[in-house]
Amino acid sequence: MVRIDKIVTKAGDGGKTRLATGEPVSKASARVEAYGAVDEANSAIGVARLHTTADPILDPILDRAQNDLFDLGADLATPEAPDMKFEPLRIQESQTLRLEAEIDQLNEPLLPLSSFILPGGTSAAAHLHVARAVMRRAERAIVALAAEERISAEAVKYANRLSDLLFVAARWANDHGRADLLWKPGANR
Q1: Domain boundaries, the chain
Q2: In this structure, which of 6, 17, 32, 52 has its CB flanked by the most CB atoms within 10 Å?
Q3: CA dist., res. 12 & res. 164, Å (int)
Q4: Number of C-beta neighbours around residue 135 at 10 A
Q5: What's the rounded Cα separation, in Å, for the pair 138 and 145?
């Protein structure tokens, strides 16, 4: 169980933070950028969920994704070390496979795509598109971290699948694609 007794510690006032291992790092490090971007994506999903609470299929999927994003943040905040004093929380393949199944579930009733989709439509869909874009940025930050340091390969896969899920979820929230806004290439020339 996680217990947080104090929020203001002033420990970060010098531009440093501590990883889950206790190691101090710059708040500008690639690792902190990656788990910070994951936190932003989680927040964006939280805003989108203000508009999905009545959807008995979509909202529980988003709820699970938000919880998984805390797992992903914990994974990214815990560098691999040979002398770990605790078992680190890592994203598991089962979490990625669950996302794939949920993508298939949400995608099945959608109208086929005939063009790229503009972010928008219903309020839920618009917010899910924002969450998707933020998650894509988080994925890029995770990939950048992986180029510098060893991280869990499953973390990269999970981030990629979640951004895919958010795209399909936005279409689901747009009346199963019927309210999608389609890109019309060159329409305003």
Answers
A1: 24-79+90-108+116-180
A2: 52
A3: 34
A4: 28
A5: 10
Q: CA-based Rg of the chain, rounded to a whole angstrom?
A: 18
Which residue in this structure is represented by tokens 């691999």?
80
Residue 55 has pLDDT above 70, yes or no: yes
CATH number belonging to domain 24-79+90-108+116-180: 1.20.1200.10
Strands (DSSP E) contained in the chain are: 16-18, 24-26, 117-118, 181-182
Q: Is residue 5 pLDDT above 90, yes or no? A: no
Grouping H, G, I as helix, E, B as strand and the rest as coil, residue 36 is helix
Helix, strand, or coil (residue 25) = strand
Read off the pLDDT of residues 131-173 as tens digits, 9 standing for 90 and up: 999 999 999 999 999 999 999 999 999 999 999 999 999 999 9
Interacting residues of 83 by C-beta distance below 8 A, sequence separation 6+? none
Cα–Cα distance measured from residue 170 to residue 131, given in angstroms and rounded to the nearest whole number: 9
Distance CA 2, CA 88 (A): 14
pLDDT in tens, 164-187: 999 999 999 999 999 999 999 999
